[in-house]
Specification:
The chain is an all-alpha fold. It is built from 17 helices and six strands. The strands form three sheets. Strands 1-2 form a two-stranded antiparallel sheet.
Length: 445
């Protein structure tokens, strides 16, 4: 085989269109398994955590949302999204074998969709909100295309005898009543009733849900969702400790919050990408993962920009390595920050600026960064784009020789692919990051 192509020059998109097409193909191979609507987390049957050939509620919802928002045309997602709707409705009707509500089951067999019955960390209560975000977003597209009848038959039926009231309503009703119930975290290891990832994504689901219920003529549900939303809003900011946003009291420095800042954002100024809370969190986690992983120090010494993020402080799963998906989340968040600065044409607060100066110095290509004055908005925004590019360039550096197959992890010493191969969530975060970056093209001219 021919040697991998060199990285694009700094300032260019970190992956070429051809490379994006290759990764999109790998991504699509993992969705809608046998037309079931189910999503395989990874086709790898032999990882340090056993087989990944299952549909995880979380990965599935995030994957299908990524498919929807990164597709160029309706034809790219319509069949798969409609199959996913039927998958969700089917799971909602399953009798649960594990003595919990089937809506908070973590994973399901493929392609049958029956809940997994082996020992596992249950319940996981982020699934209902993540599915609701995905399906409300899809419902908005359907309504705009004149498909309200489909929405009324599947997503919000107004009749508990038909699809339990609809795929969206049934999940939101669970969330409204149980948002503060005990749950496993998204890494399936620790338990709490107040994880930031869960609360912030629930906040988005309920905000969208209030609006969607009103569109569907259900003011009673809208009112009930608003009460729960008010409760979440009153406590969500307590996750900022003055320095960074922590995931939970028992899991403080955790990159899940970086993914949450993307997946739960409503563009309403609460934990916005250039806020002191978010920039302080990036600065904190940059310090953690730069010091934890020798590969980050080696790459920087070799002139490769960016950083590789892991999961959390003290992670030991499969040796405790960088994860492609959390690194992809960071790139997307940096691009969102660039968009915020480009759009407002204003610098963030002095506190945020202090954090951002260190962030862009650490992550951006140094020669390219030297061409921009970060004390003015346009220069700062371009520096944030270069920082996101740096992160994706570092992922590319370690995966291009393997044909851009994206694993779950990269070895902390060598950068070699580790743990599960072709992790669907890894592709999802890269596709989303590159889509946000493409939306900045008009600013980058």
């Amino acid at each position: 085989p021919s040697p991998p192509s060199p990285p694009p020059p700094p300032g260019s998109a970190p992956f070429s269109n051809k490379e994006m097409a290759i990764m999109t193909k790998f991504f699509l191979a993992n969705i809608d398994i046998k037309n079931s609507g189910g999503v395989v987390a990874s086709p790898d049957n032999n990882t340090p955590g056993g087989s990944y050939y299952y549909h995880w509620a979380r990965d599935g919802a995030l994957t299908m949302h990524a498919l929807h928002i990164t597709s160029n045309t309706t034809a790219n997602f319509e069949k798969h999204m409609k199959n996913y709707v039927q998958w969700v409705i089917g799971r909602h009707t399953e009798s649960d074998p594990n003595n919990i509500d089937v809506r908070v089951e973590p994973k399901y067999n493929l392609p049958s969709g029956t809940p997994y019955t082996g020992g596992w960390c249950r319940p996981q209560n982020d699934g209902p909100g993540l599915r609701a975000i995905t399906l409300i977003s899809y419902a908005q597209t359907l309504i705009s295309q004149g498909q309200m009848s489909y929405v009324k038959q599947n997503l919000w039926t107004g009749n508990s005898q038909q699809a339990q009231g609809g795929a969206v309503k049934y999940d939101l009703d669970w969330l409204q009543a149980n948002y503060d119930s005990n749950t496993c975290d998204l890494w399936e290891e620790v338990q709490s009733n107040d994880f930031f990832w869960n609360r912030y994504t629930m906040r988005k689901a309920l905000t969208l849900g209030v609006g969607f219920a009103k569109v569907m003529g259900d003011s009673a549900s809208a009112s009930a969702y608003q009460k729960t939303l008010d409760a979440i809003n009153s406590s969500i900011k307590s996750h900022f400790n003055g320095q960074f946003v922590f995931e939970s009291q028992n899991r403080q420095q955790d990159a899940s919050v970086i993914c949450a800042f993307n997946d739960g954002d409503l563009n309403d100024g609460v934990f916005s990408p250039t806020s002191k809370e978010v920039t302080g969190t990036i600065a904190t986690l940059n310090g953690l993962f730069n010091s934890t992983f020798p590969i980050n120090q080696k790459d920087t010494a070799n002139g490769i920009p960016g950083i590789l993020y892991g999961r959390y402080q003290g992670d030991s799963y499969a040796g405790g390595n960088p994860w492609v998906l959390t690194s992809g989340c960071l790139a997307e968040l940096l691009y969102h920050g660039a968009k915020e600065v480009f759009s407002t044409n204003q610098l963030p607060s002095d506190e945020s600026m202090d954090h951002l100066a260190g962030i862009v110095r650490m992550l951006a290509d140094r020669k390219a960064l030297a061409q921009h004055d970060i004390t003015e908005p346009h220069g700062l925004a371009k520096a944030l784009v270069l920082s996101g590019d740096g992160v994706l360039t570092r992922i590319r550096h370690h995966t291009v020789a393997g044909g851009l197959h994206q694993p779950e992890q990269l070895d902390k010493n060598t950068g070699a692919e580790a743990s599960a191969t072709d992790l669907t969530w890894s592709y999802a975060t890269i596709l989303k990051a590159m889509t946000v970056r493409a939306g900045l093209d008009s600013f980058l001219l």
